[in-house]
Amino acid sequence: MASKVLITFLGTGRLNKEGSNTRDYAKVTYLFNGKKFKSSFVSLILARELKAGKIIIIGTLKSMWEELYLRILGEGNINEDFYLELTELHKTYKDINDDVYRIISRLEKEVSEKAGLNIKILLLKNGINQDEIDFNIDVTIDFLQNQLLGDIKWEVYVDITHGFRSMAFIINQVIFYFSQVFDDQIKFRKIYYGMMEVIKDLGYAPIVSLSRLIDLNQWAQASYAFKHFGNAYLLSDLLTNKKDNPAKKVLKEFSNTLNLSLIFHVKKQLRALDKLIKQEYHSSLASLIIPRVIQDFASFFGSSSESLKDSVFQIKLARWHFNRKNFGLAVIVLYEAAITWICENENLVPTARNDRERAKSLLSDKNYHDLRNILSKYKIDNIRNGVAHQLPKQIPVSTAIKNLESALNELEKIILV
Questions:
Q1: What is the DSSP letter of 192?
Q2: DSSP string spanning 137-203?
């Protein structure tokens, strides 16, 4: 079972009054899951309600660390000298150094012990230029590696109520990156925001979920995978509504067919895909992405792809694979397109095994001299056998790719007439 981690931000707060050196977060009434809570720190509410096993607090030198210290330990339990040190932190130090880390480490230890929570603090720069932004990203990646990668699986929740907005955007992207690279260990679940802008209207700040931002990233990733590689598995997985089940099935079957290079079945699958263009989807994201990507794929083969001769469709499919650097599939489909073309010229059945064997034997016939020369010149059969049978001795990879491209260019001139 996965543990929950809440990642939150600590801002600069406000001065208690003009001329004062003390800052605080005003206590605010928040609404979460139908219950109201009054607190200075929305993160403490979320941590308790989510039953988080760890809290990561992100801030800068200017963040109100003294207020965090005071609120968690209580006025009667704080060390006055340490409280003053935290108050003056942003004035004493202009940059993060070992002394700053020492102070933050002590704060981390004391608030964790008092709150009975596993609290970790990540100190970042303001992010006012590219160097500081790069620093923040690199430090965050290193920090999250140490905190989230290991034997424990984590569900990540993010609270962006406080802190610099630009920092929240960067951190969310880093976390999404981690959740994709280490998807077996990290699940990005929710983004929360305490909406204090509506307190005057409602009398409280609702804690709202902005988790559609995670959905948008996932849909964009799925769209890219389908558009550029014909991989519709991610799109299929995102279709969770029962109304979308027919599309879910078609997309998965299409990917299976394409990845297995069942070239005669791919053409048939285009008919099923074509129906998805006009289908109504439960998700607005699906309605925007799926028809567009399918239309892009279908248009590569032309408006009448279903009526194309099999050899023409296959050579186009070989080109499609090559353009997407699916070189193994490209060489297999290219070779089969040549055999299909012979079948069509000789009135043989392209889908019949015996007829295809007959077509292969005709490669030595004088009528197919040009075709045979192309396949021989660029060692297509050797490359194809190397891919299919994993032979140890093969021509260099770079040469194989150049040969494949040259053969594809020349075969297109023969078949696409």
A1: E
A2: HHHHHHHHHHHHSSSS-EEEEEE-SSS-HHHHHHHHHHHHHHHHHTTTTEEEEEEEEE-GGGHHHHS
Residue with tokens 């490359």: 383
Higher per-residue confidence, 332 vs 20: 332
Residue-wise pLDDT tens digits, 304-346:
666 789 999 999 999 999 998 999 889 999 999 999 999 999 9
Find the length of the chain. Answer: 417
Instruction: Give me the amino acid identity at 397.
Output: V
The ranges assigned to domains in the chain are 3-210, 211-304, 308-417
Q: 102: pLDDT confidence band, cut at 50, 70 and 90?
A: very high
The Cα-based distances of 209 to 46, 121, 323, 353 in angstroms read: 12, 24, 40, 58
How many helices (DSSP H) and strands (DSSP E) are in the chain? 19, 10
- CATH-assigned architecture of domain 3-210: 3-Layer(aba) Sandwich (3.40)
Tokens for 195?
A: 């909406």
User: pTM for the complete prediction?
Assistant: 0.80
